Request: fold
Amino acid sequence: MAETFDVVVIGGGIHGAGIAQAAAARGLSVMVLEQTAIASGTSSRSSKLIHGGLRYLESRQFSLVRECLQERSLLLKLAPGLVELRPFYIPVYRDTARRPWMLYVGLSFYRLLGGGGPAMRFRRIPQSQWKNLDGLEMTDLEAVFQYYDAQTDDAALTNAVMRSAQRLGAQLKIPATFTGALLDEPTNAIEYRHNGKTETCGAAVLINAAGPWAQEVLSRITPAPPQLEIELVQGTHLLLPGKLTQGIYYVEAEDRRVVFVMPWKGNTLVGTTELIFQGNPGDVAPLPSEIAYLMETLCRYFPRYRTGVPIRDAIAGLRVLPSGRNGTEGEAGTLHARSRETVLYLHRREQSGTTRLLTVYGGKLTTYRLTAERVMAHLADALPARVPLADTRDLELT
Reply:
C-alpha cells in the first residue's frame, strides 16, 4: 500500500523548504518532491539579500516592508552564519531622480517600520570619506547615504531550512518529478517518478511550491483546478572580478530602477533586471540586452570597469508575479511597481469545503518563514491535530 502523508510539497526551493519545515514543526508527516536539486531554480539566482525592501516604500507596500524587516531581524538571530548585516550605500548625483531629502525621509520611515535600534541606523557619509567608497564615481556626486540590510547565500540558506525540516521528520525525494494527482476525499492520490521508477503516495493536502513551474504542476492535476493568471519575470545577475571592501551599493539605473552592486565570494555581483519571460522556465538565460544594461549601470558608477573586464558568469532566474490583468498594479514597463506580496491560492472540494490543494505564487526570500506559517494557518481545516515539535521562530539554521 502506498504511504500516506499529511502534506506533500512539490518543489525544493526556499518556499517548499520553508513549508516543509513549518509542517514538520507542527508534528505533521511531510514529503517533499524536488525534480532537480534543492535551490536549483530561482532560490539560487536571487540578489542574495535579506532586506526590508526600501524601494517598496515608493509603491506604498508598507505592510510588506514591515514584515520583511521583522523577518530580517529574526533571521539575523536564527542564522548568524548565513545571514549577516551589511552596510549599504546610496550615492546621489546631480541627475539622480531620488533627491537627498527624499532619501532622508524614506530612510527615516524605513527605520520607523523596522522598530529602530542599531540595525536600522542610517547616516549621511561626510564628503571627506567618499574617497574610501571602492572607487565610486565622484563627478557630480552630491551626497552618499549609508544604511543597513542583510546579505545571505540563498542556496545555502535554502539547504539549511530543508535540513531543519528533515531533522524534524520531513522526507525528501530527489530527483522526483511530479507526474499527476487526483484530488479526492479523504486523501489525494499522487504519482511521481523517482530514480526512473513510477511511485505513488497519498496526502491530505498537496502544496504546489514549484515556483515558475506552478502552472505546469496544476495542468497535471484532476479535476483541473483554477489557475491564477501570472507573468514570469526574468532577472539577470552578472559576476565580475574585483572586490568591494566597504559594502553594497544601491544605485539608480538610467530608467530609475534600482540595481545592486555587491561583494560576492571575492568578486562583484551586479543585478538585477526585470523583463517578461515567455517559454519553458528551464530555458531561461541572460539576454544580451540585460548584460548591456547591467554593464552600463556598473560602469556609470565605478569607472574602473570602463576599460573592459571579463564577465565571469551571467545568471538568470524567474520571479512569479500576478498578472496586471488580475487587477494588480503595473504593466510590463513598470514591473518594479508591481506588488511583491505572496499569493496563496486555495482549491477546496465542493462537497466538504476542505482545502485539498494550495499553490504558492510569488514570494520573497526574506519572508519565506512567514509565508510558510500563513500556509499552515490556511490549511488548519484540512490537517489533523498533531503534537507540535518546535516553533520555526526558535529553530536555528546551520
